[in-house]
Amino acid sequence: INAEYMGFGKMIKIFYGLLIFFVASTFCGHSKEEWKSRTIYQLLTDRFARSNGDNSPCSDLQHYCGGTYQGIINNLDYIQEMGFDAIWISPVVDNADIPPRHGYHGYWARDWTKLNNHFGSEDDFKKFISECHSRNIWVMVDVVANHVAPVGLDFSTIYPFNRAEHYHDWCDIDDYDFDHNQWKVENCRLAKLPDLKQENGWVTDTLLAWVKNLVHNYDIDGLRVDTVPEVPKWFWYKFTEAAGVYTIGEVFNFRWDYLRGYIGPMNSILNYAIFRELREVFKGGSFNNFANTISAVQNFFGNELNYMGNFVDNHDNPRFLNGFGGWDGLMGALTFSLFFTGIPIVYYGDEQGYGGGDDPNNREELWTHMNRNTAIYQLIKKVNEVRKQYKVWNYPFRDLWHKDHMMAFTKGPVLVVVTTRGQQVEEDVPNVPFPDGTRLCDVFSGYYDCINVNGGRVHLSIPGNKHKVYVRHQLYHLTTNLSLIHISEPTRPERISYAVFCLKKKKN
């Protein structure tokens, strides 16, 4: 009996040893389905906040300005109070400085085994992620697998890709090539950046191991992937699988068929399908044309639209307000983007009305303007509160009615009206999918502006260039001011129920 007991005990030890190994080795990434409930704040790590609170202006936007992970930690309240529950940060690997410009942006990788110490230490990076997760904020890291720093043909300073065989032969991509020569797009240099040769098995294996280790070692929740069309699709299938988390790719192109071709290799893509039209309509264009575009986009991308990233501004384009002084237009574009089908992404500085032009002028330092009382900051805050309260990502976008100067649409129980006319708007909107007698009140007015559904219609009276978000009044318990309510998404139950099985991989 003792022998049998001892044998059984040994088996138990082996079983528990295997279980502990399995648990310690398991990483629970977030799927695209989980990500669709998130709202992302995009920032450049170097431009958001300094560690020591120094708010003096940056003297040269082509150089490092001093933003750090600790700076972000110190100002997480600023982001979270706007209602964001995900942050997209700059690439984290060590970058080269090639005068007159420096790698402050993160896209000039030099040593893939090191972190960029301008942003802080490895412990600072881990602390940043831990602080975010303690607030139920997910972290999305920008990554690059297409190129390295602009070192010409001298690869000796690049690690581990330090040999000529790791790169394609030097040829340059021309603007014409993006729509006419995919071979050059995948095999030549973008902006003279040495182009990694994924056909080299060692290069591919190294990149896959690198992204897997990055995600697992630091508990990354998602990846924004740079320069996707410049790398063959077969590689991206492997890269996405190795990452094991939601990947959203930058496909800087406006052809819908071209864009859709990268959904699959990536979990999803940034929504360049509506980017130009979204900006155009809120700078005074026609909602008739815009509605046609939206309908066509919905039909073309179908369910995949739920996982695409909607944005008004980013670091690759002049800001919406560049050369256009109308905050009302930006507020309308942001309102639409935050409610339209997909995952909203707001670029840092929009909430302060920044209007920088081409790179690097659209990459301003934020610490000189972190006012939480601007009209745009407050609009984003209230829209995000409504998004979470009503879980609008679970409902389809429904265009109820539009004219040249306005559009009314619903996302489930929320009625949104956006306008571009400078004068008062008086309109009867049909097709309202709420029962007669339903009372809807505008969150931006503190619930003083209310309308009633009658015969499937509502009458709207809206000041020029203003926007409305109507919700059913009784669901807010007769509250007269949304700002008095703190609405936050509770800890996601799946993170709790998985806790036993999805422990973080032990850090060395």
Describe the 3D structure:
Helices cover 31% and strands 17% of the residues. It is built from 16 helices and 20 strands. The strands form five sheets. Strands 10-9-8-7-2-1-12-11 form an eight-stranded parallel beta sheet, covered by helices on one side. Strands 13-14-15-20-17-18 form a six-stranded antiparallel beta sheet, with helices on one face. α14 links the parallel β11 (309-311) and β12 (343-347). α9 runs parallel beside α10 and α14 (327-339) runs parallel beside α15 (375-390). The longest helix is centred in the first third of the chain and has 24 residues, at 2-25. The radius of gyration is 25 Å and the shape is globular. The two termini are 42 Å apart. Mean pLDDT is 89; it is low at 1-26 and 475-508.
Secondary structure blueprint with pairings:
Elements: H1 2-25, H2 32-35, E1 40-42, H3 45-48, H4 69-74, H5 76-80, E2 86-89, E3 93-95, E4 97-98, E5 101-102, E6 109-115, H6 122-134, E7 138-143, H7 177-180, H8 182-187, H9 201-218, E8 222-225, H10 233-243, E9 246-249, H11 256-260, E10 268-269, H12 275-282, H13 287-301, E11 309-311, H14 327-339, E12 343-347, H15 375-390, E13 397-403, E14 406-411, E15 414-419, E16 425-429, E17 439-442, E18 450-452, E19 458-462, E20 468-472, H16 493-497
Parallel strand pairs: 1-2, 1-12, 2-7, 7-8, 8-9, 9-10, 11-12
Antiparallel strand pairs: 3-6, 4-5, 13-14, 14-15, 15-20, 16-19, 17-18, 17-20
Helix pairs in contact: 9-10, 12-14, 14-15
